[in-house]
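Hi U.,

Before I forget, here's the chain from the pilot set. I'm dumping it here mostly so it's searchable later in email.
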Amino acid sequence: MKKWVLRVGIVLLAVGGVVYIWLGEEMKQGVQPVANGTAEYVIVLGAKVKPGGVPSLSLKNRLEEAVKYLNKYPHVKVIVSGGQGADEDRTEASVMLKYLQDNGIDTNRILVEDQSTSTYENLLFSKELLPTGTKRITIVSNDFHLKRAKYLAESLDFEVDVVAAKTPKSVEAKLKLRERAALLKTYVIGY
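Structure:
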């Protein structure tokens, strides 16, 4: 009886290890294709906002990349997407809007989606702000998050390219572990 339990445990551990590695490789593929300004709209996905409207490091990195991209491609418009979490004192979108404005992005280029509470909702609700028939979009998020974001966007009939922001080293291990679980759930459930 004990040998059987041990064998099952070893098999489960091996399967878990393989799935863990596979999900890690999937996440690495998220940073392609790199955006080149051909999509007219970029969506910056929200992330944690600290008290007082201070963007978390993850969100700050996304916003820094968005500013660089928008300066490089002045014809591109941007949607800042993110609602207000229970532990946030304002919407992620409002913080992103202010950051972009403070960094020289013309307000006329910025659309605000401030109701979403998940990556899927970021994309779904942002789609409602786009001109009818818009297919090509650029997504800005942290590198670890882009595979799932692209998968979800493609499920909404988008053609996607990406701008990858670095993941802060201080939270990288935690975020990558959590993202593996979220990616697996997305593959199984679909959103």
